[in-house]
Design goal:
This protein has helices at 8-15, 42-47, 53-57, 71-80, 84-87, 124-127, 133-139, 156-161, 174-185, 201-209, 214-233, 287-298, 307-312, 323-326, 363-366; strands spanning 31-37, 59-64, 94-96, 103-106, 111-112, 116-117, 143-147, 167-168, 193-199, 238-244, 249-250, 253-256, 267-270, 276-281, 302-306, 332-336, 340-343, 356-357, 367-373. It is of the alpha/beta class. A seven-stranded mixed β-sheet has the order 2-19-10-1-9-7-8. It has a four-stranded antiparallel β-sheet with strand order 3-4-5-6, with no helix packed on it. A four-stranded antiparallel β-sheet has the order 13-14-16-15. A hairpin with a 6-residue loop joins strand 3 (94-96) and strand 4.
Length: 374
């Protein structure tokens, strides 16, 4: 089986002598930095080696993001070292139980129904109950550092996924990311350190302009320069690993779900995102009819399967989810095919105008590089 994002931190732990099997065969070192570039797909790199020569030359292997290939799910899979069937962050929005019926939780901003803060009603540590690999590192004496935008350190998703306390180095741009990584790695001492660093601009630019747009490629070029500088300037006591949480496709055909009334018969909620939709039904007995209607209506634009089919095919991971996680997966799951997107403008006005999207099964969305070096 191909390695996934969930293999990175178990491999880091093994390189520190914690745990056993190292799936990525990392060379032990005093310090390890994982720099996650949001939206860095392996196929994007393969198309533009001239734009990113350093990263292209240092690709150690290609990983799969896991399904769905979206940021909240991928970051949690990275941090926990397990797919979403285990950790339960099953998409960019998914149903959570409430007194008046299920509501959609958007874990990236930890909001209900896309606008209401959900921290009090759904504490992150109760939504995602597994310990993280960073907690394991900390228990074994490894210093933890975060080089992330300042707002992320205390966000709901960070609390749910990463969990471990550590030193925050706020970084709003690539210069600050590079400076913070170099500052941590230059500290004296023999104690091991792990640094998680994150940069969001490739993803946000790709969403607005498209993954292969001039604007996105300019950001990619800047990232490559930053990585080149790090590989040159980091001490030999530090290993740098660069990866992405997903790739991206350019949307060519937009399917407005809000305008297709037949898709809303017996449907209570539509979650997920434009490339992967969770469909929650008003009543279980309606499943065959709703599945047939969605399959006919979307035709060549999406594959529509039941929850049971998705689980049988191990879409969300090979381990069966516990009952709480099971209920977060739609009664039906609609996965866009080709370059179609399934938008809901009424609830997601900004997302519905985006050019770049991710979440589904294409190589552009699923494959991410693992770039390594000292």
């Amino acid at each position: 089986m191909p390695h996934t994002l969930a293999d990175i931190l178990p491999a880091v732990a093994a390189s520190f002598g914690i745990g056993g099997y190292d799936p990525l065969d990392l060379t032990p070192n005093r310090d390890v930095v994982v720099l996650l570039i949001d939206g860095l797909g392996a196929e994007l790199l393969a198309r533009h080696p001239d734009i990113a020569p350093t990263m292209t030359a240092n690709v150690a292997t290609t990983l799969t993001a896991g399904f769905p290939s979206t940021t909240a799910t991928s970051l949690t899979s990275l941090a926990v070292g397990a797919p979403c069937a285990t950790h339960g962050i099953v998409g960019s929005s998914f149903a959570m139980p409430a007194s008046d019926g299920p509501r959609l939780l958007y874990p990236l901003r930890w909001r209900l129904d896309s606008t209401i803060d959900a921290i009090e009603e759904y504490p992150p540590e109760t939504v995602q109950r597994n310990s993280s690999r960073l907690q394991d590192l900390a228990v074994h004496g490894v210093e933890i550092h975060y080089v992330v935008p300042a707002y992320q350190r205390a966000s709901g998703l960070t609390r749910a996924a990463f969990r471990a306390p550590g030193t925050l180095h706020p970084a709003a741009d690539l210069d600050e990311v590079r400076a913070a990584i170099l500052e941590v790695s230059a500290r004296a001492g023999t104690r091991s350190r792990f640094t998680y660093a994150y940069f969001p601009d490739l993803d946000s630019t790709g969403h607005r302009h498209g993954p292969d747009s001039a604007q996105a490629l300019e950001v990619l070029r800047d990232i490559d320069t930053c990585v080149a500088d790090l590989l040159t300037d980091l001490p030999t006591t530090c290993t740098l690993l660069v990866t992405g949480d997903h790739g991206m496709i350019h949307a060519d055909e937009v399917i407005d779900l809000d305008t297709r009334s037949r898709l809303h018969q017996d449907v209570r909620l539509i979650g997920g995102e434009a490339r992967v939709r969770h469909i929650y039904l008003e009543r279980a007995a309606a499943l065959p009819d709703v599945a047939a209607q969605w399959s006919a209506e979307l035709s060549t634009h999406a594959r529509v399967v039941s929850r049971a089919e998705a689980l049988d095919e191990h879409w969300f991971g090979r381990t069966a989810p516990d009952p709480a996680v099971l209920d977060r997966i739609g009664d039906l799951v609609a996965v866009a095919e080709g370059r179609s997107v399934l938008v809901c403008p009424g609830r997601e006005p900004v997302e519905s105008t985006m050019i770049g999207h991710h979440g589904a099964w294409t190589a552009d969305e699923q494959l991410v590089p693992l770039i390594g070096g000292r």
